[in-house]
Write a structure and sequence with these properties.
By secondary structure, the protein is of the alpha/beta class. The protein has a single domain (17-189), classed as Rossmann fold (3-Layer(aba) Sandwich), CATH 3.40.50. It has helices at residues 29-39, 49-54, 63-86, 100-109, 124-134, 141-145, 166-177, 184-189, and strands spanning 17-22, 44-48, 90-95, 114-121, 157-160.
Length: 190
Amino acid sequence: MTIGVAHEVVADARAGRVILLNGTSSSGKSSIATELLDMLDGAWFHLAIDGFHRVRSRRDWSEDEFLPIFQRTVLGFHRAVAGMVAAGNDVVMDYVLGERWRLADCLSVFENHQVLFVGVRCSLPELQRRERARGNRTMGRAEVQFPLVHQHGVYDVEVDTEHHTPDECAATIRDRLHQGPPTAFAQLRV
């Protein structure tokens, strides 16, 4: 039996790009990502860490059992995004850099890729209000993440979801994407 190829695979010579949206839970990253997919030219993918956690099996693991599973999920997420980008796809990465090792791994994994690093900001009282209003969030998660996610201090662009709509934030990010190569990851590697 001969297996034929119905269509030849078209390889894109260029590597894809990453727009990494970093902010706490409830900061508005997913809403911005939705707007970006509608606004940007070409085919973009929205990949969110929450989606990776949702497709993992559920068990009653102890904290000691769960920690390495959680860490492998995060490391796998970075590599899944990098794989999509290496294949020529453009990705909006919806993420929470709540621990230093996550950023260190991203800097390593995305070393040969163009990453526009975006800080998604919102005040803590507004984050807490959003958590309560949504009802599907772990209460207090944003407060725990708040002092951690932006501690590295360097971005290519920052947006404020408390004072601007997701559409306005997405337009700011789009405009920065077209202003030239991103530099934040290069600065953070030094």
